[in-house]
């Protein structure tokens, strides 16, 4: 069988909160070029993601993938933990 390519977005960020049960808050930083001044600006967004085993801790670098809505604000799912915080 052939693998079907997914067109769901995948983002990488840092966990900033793990207080809720089975939920993490991931801060994703992107660089955007200013249209007039041509300087790169850091934009930060926070996404709530589902962490079913409560594996993540604050400071971990994780990869999250788009998912169906799980609650009012949770539309992302933990794909993998790339680096654990020390």
UniProtKB/TrEMBL annotation:
Q: What does this protein do?
A: One of the primary rRNA binding proteins, it binds specifically to the 5'-end of 16S ribosomal RNA.
- Keywords, alphabetical: Ribonucleoprotein, Ribosomal protein, RNA-binding, rRNA-binding
Q: Which InterPro entries match?
A: NA-bd_OB-fold (IPR012340), Ribosomal_uS17 (IPR000266), Ribosomal_uS17_bact/chlr (IPR019984), Ribosomal_uS17_CS (IPR019979)
Pfam families membership: Ribosomal_S17
Q: Please identify the protein, giving its name as recorded.
A: Small ribosomal subunit protein uS17
Cellular component annotations (GO), alphabetically ordered: cytosolic small ribosomal subunit
Q: Which GO terms describe its molecular function?
A: rRNA binding; structural constituent of ribosome
Q: Share what the entry says about its subunit structure, partners included.
A: Part of the 30S ribosomal subunit.
Q: Which gene encodes it?
A: rpsQ
PANTHER family in the record:
40S RIBOSOMAL PROTEIN S11 FAMILY MEMBER, SMALL RIBOSOMAL SUBUNIT PROTEIN US17M
Could you say which protein family the record assigns here? Answer: Belongs to the universal ribosomal protein uS17 family.
Could you tell me the Gene Ontology terms of the biological process aspect for this record? translation
């Amino acid at each position: 069988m052939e693998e079907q390519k997914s067109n769901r977005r995948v983002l990488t960020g840092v966990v900033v909160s793990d207080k809720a049960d089975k939920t993490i808050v991931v801060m994703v930083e992107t660089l955007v070029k200013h249209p007039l001044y041509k300087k790169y600006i850091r934009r930060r967004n926070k996404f709530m993601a589902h962490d079913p085993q409560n594996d993540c801790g604050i400071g971990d670098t994780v990869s999250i993938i788009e998912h169906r809505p799980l609650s009012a604000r949770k539309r992302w799912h933990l794909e993998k933990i790339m680096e654990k915080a020390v």
